[in-house]
Records
---
Amino acid sequence: MSSSTEVNTNLYDDELTIGKWFKNIWTAIRSVTKGLGITFKYVYGVKPVTIEYPEVREELPANSRSRLFNDAENCISCYQCATACPVDCIYITAVRRDKEAPALKTKGGTPIKLDLLQYTIDTALCCYCGLCTTVCPTECLTHTTDYEFAQYTVDEMKYDYLADDVRAWRDRIVK
Amino acid sequence: MENSNNVEKLHTDLMTVNMGPQHPATHGVLRVEIKTDSEIVAEATPYLGYLHRCMEKHCEHLDYRGIIPFVDRMDYLASMNMEMGYSLAVEKMLGTEVPERAEYIRVLVSELQRVASHLMFFGTYAIDLGAFTPFLYAFQDREEILRLFEELSGARLLYNYIWIGGVWNDINDEQLRRIAKFCDKMEESLKKYHDLVGMNAIFIDRTKNVGVISEEMAYQYGATGPVLRGSGIDWDLRKKMPYGIYDKFDFDTVVGKGEMGTVGDCWDRYQVRVLEIFESLKIIRQVLDGIEEGPIIGKVPKIIKVPEGEIYVRTECPRGELGYHLTSDGGKNPYRLKVKSSCFTHTSMLGELGKGQMIADFVATIGSIDIVLGEVDR
């Protein structure tokens, strides 16, 4: 050993007597049997705690914050979600609605005064904090309990909520 | 010393080895540059910054509500405690009154989080020292807490649950009953786990007299939390400077006594954490007795504008003391949010602790100070 380091060698300082030798063996046996005793209690009569995933799918609690869904028909384009978003991943474009066009209302009865042209959420950026859903006045933007939405490319994580295929989720979302 | 075959005269160099950033024993992305002399650590230098996410700078451009998801991500194993400290800081500046029920729920969730975090320590520390089973036991119990948090807040790890002025969702009676049941079960099984790991002869041999942090060293480095208490110093912010409604509860501070070896060794720090779970369960039981119906969020303006000034708030987190220094210029965003993290302080001790240890003991030392790199780098 070089002189640059000092090692704590007090572990080996004690002289090993025969008494200590037997005491060590006794300690080891007692300790091991105690530990294994606890382990053997788990051999029988214990329910499995894990879920075999692809066969058994877990249902998440009702207010789980998973994939976002915007019911575009009830959206009044108030931009509150985009303002509340801490990572700025909600992109909204809306124009003023023609006065001659037939008046539209949301489910709750709020008149829609803006035409929604784009409502996109970049889910790859989303941090699932839930702040956007709490500010939504018409409660059209919600977190669903759908958690299986892996994609092959990052671009596919950009959800355009006006597109037909994304609108079709409406039938299978829970909340 | 003269030696006949001149082995002593052979020139031996110190070898530099990188431990981490991807190393199972460093609990995240910590890189420790170790100069080794055969099996012995001659010099250890921790390098940080692999998980730096500019969190403090980001906060300067976010509104006060939007910061909460960010502070969650600092110590991802104790998000509730992170939120609690931040909310307290903003509430003190705003002068908001938090309803009684919300205060109770806050204490409840942060103590549950402390239990979950210490269980995580218990499991990973056993893995560091070569025992795999305790990890599974610990995770089984931790899972129940996470499931409850998921029902409460909607997320398993990054909750965004404690809001400025109160909490997000209310807790119902069924959940309270479940927590009571969990407390009984946890107490019973934790005694079993402590027998399995803490009293095991191999575990004791691996941890006693290893990585000793003396009282003086703990003071000098500014250690907090279980590391400080493990060195035999009776200091708990919940007791000494109560925040929230912690002054209402009756619990003990656990300090290391050096039962197996020296005061302040790895075993003492392990024991402090395990016994702290019992204390947390004590607090949770008192919360369950004292909680009453009422509102869960106080009056907070829709757009939060904190008056000009600054504040420093510190809270007791599972890993030590967490301080928020919030400076405001009266606008919608904070002027500066400086976070004082306990893990950072503890990481700085590694250099001195590691000197002269065996490499395997060094692994035990890193595990025993229980750092989360998310909080170190922020």
---
Amino acid sequence: MSEVILKGLKKVYDNKVTAVHDVNLEIKDKEFIVLVGPSGCGKSTTLRMVAGLEEISDGELYIDGRLVNDVAPKDRDIAMVFQNYALYPHMTVYDNLAYALKLRKTPKAEIKKKVLEVAEILDITQYLERKPKALSGGQRQRVAIGRAMVRDPKVFLMDEPLSNLDAKLRNQMRAEIIKLRSRIDTTFMYVTHDQTEAMTLGDRIVIMKDGYVNQIGTPQEVFNRPVNLFVAGFIGMPVMNFFDNCRLIEEGGVFHAEIRGVRFKLSDFQQKALKQNGVKPCDIVCGIRPQHVTVGEGELKATIEVSEMMGSEYNLHARCEGDEVVKLIPTVDLATDVSMGRTVSFTT
Amino acid sequence: MEAKAKPLAKNPGLMSKSQKRARSLRENAPFLLMIFPAVLVVFLFNYLPIYGVLIAFQDFMPGDKILSSSTIWVGFENFRRFFSDPQFWPLMKNTFLICIYGFIIGFPLPIIISLMLNSLKGRKTAKYLQTIFTAPHFISLVVLVGMLTLFFGRYGLVNNVVAHMGGERYSYFLESSAFRPLYILSSNWQDFGWSAVIYIAALSNVDPQQHEAAILDGATRFQRVIHVDLPAIMPMISVMLIMSIGGLMDVGYEKALLMQTDGNLGVSELISTYVYKRGLTGVPDQAYATAIGLFNSVINVILLIIANTTSKRFSENSLW
């Protein structure tokens, strides 16, 4: 069992700046949890508190049922992969992988066996005699992951491990982390600012902003049922379209959203939620995912400002009557002309 | 009708060499202007005087022109005179010993101090200590030797304490055995803080994540110094080592002269003090003094080349 429990975790720096407010989180054994949010939201600080690299100002941290607030990082049975790889530059790949085990006075034969095993998994056996500077970014990151793996930690912490890689390599490494996860049965805590990484890797996602946890849920939950405007806007690519100054209208027990004078019937889930919460007609902000926008029909009109050809789809940036920029994703077989300056109709 | 030649396009690939040079000059004009005073100083005080080296090969008398129709060229005669001078071996030995002892103590000291300061948890304490360690560098040599006299003179602080405790007074400045320790230790005391600055600057660039990774590996503070800090400043150490070896035999005459007494003359007479005395005092023999100085410089250049070549072969750091 390697459950991690964060109870009211708080980080206040000496200058009285609170970086993390009251984080409560239960990470199940072998769960892959991703902390995501913009820069300065406290996700890395939270991870560093779990690692023991930051002192916990308040709250309790349990790893595998043991309170570890005052336990030294090396005794927490965790391993961490850093953004900048943090490899020892003067050591070979083999020595980098073996160093933590050497410090634990592991027998040489066992170290060798473990290092070779991990190198095999990560496909870095041919680089064992090289020094880190003779490796590419992707290879270095594999070594950094390997260095964490050899220790068989209860919890695997990753702090933006793919941020230094180019887009292609990042996608490749992301897929490798997914494969790796199936091979090493342990609990993962992964920090990223990239919502795509969060969505693809996490069993559950923790979305943070300004030191507060905004929502915890599966990728589907946070995408389909965001709890607030921040989560709705942060998760999803392209980002959700928001329409200010809209009205929630109820007619014959059925809720509609009125956007620029045009009514849209809300989904069954939304109808149910609004009724359950006893919501009365009021001014609202409407959020519509670009994927739910259809061009070529409907009463809302918008002028296309930018049309981005993305290969299999277009990203359209259009300006609607109320000045909001709308992003649409039509397919390549779209019949409508999507050239700039053209006015299109759309619906949701 | 002949077609008018088209001007070359602004594309650098289509420019002639002189056009490229002119463009580069234009673009870098502000930087060249900024570096000009430094280049001028180096030229005036380091390159121009090289012309004077010619007198090492002449029978030169004060007042003579360096190059004139009456110049008497003597080839390596001045060098031969120095090699057969009874002072040659004592001078070589004294200079070499004071430099090598100074190097053995003075080279690692700033590295150790910088690593220790960098390891201190309290940043403020480290800053205070750094200021305290650096301050002696700004004391002039005359004041420094004055301080040494106050502390180690026959009636100085140390002797007063010894006498107070019933011991005998010791003339540190008259004893040959005390010259080198006093000279070397005071020089290192004066310069170790200043020399550490360059290593402290290099250490400030160490990625904190490397330390954190080592902490998670279970490395102790000392192991982190060895495996994280030291490798990070190794290129700087290599460069400083090459430069130190290159200047190994280069020791100033001022401090040795200030500390020189009849009692310690046997060990305090260095190449530089001898050059000063032969070239500028008594009946000056400037050609001879220049030849000795040039010989000393040639040794330094040879040491520099050896150090650089060795460093290039065994590490990947070198000056050129």
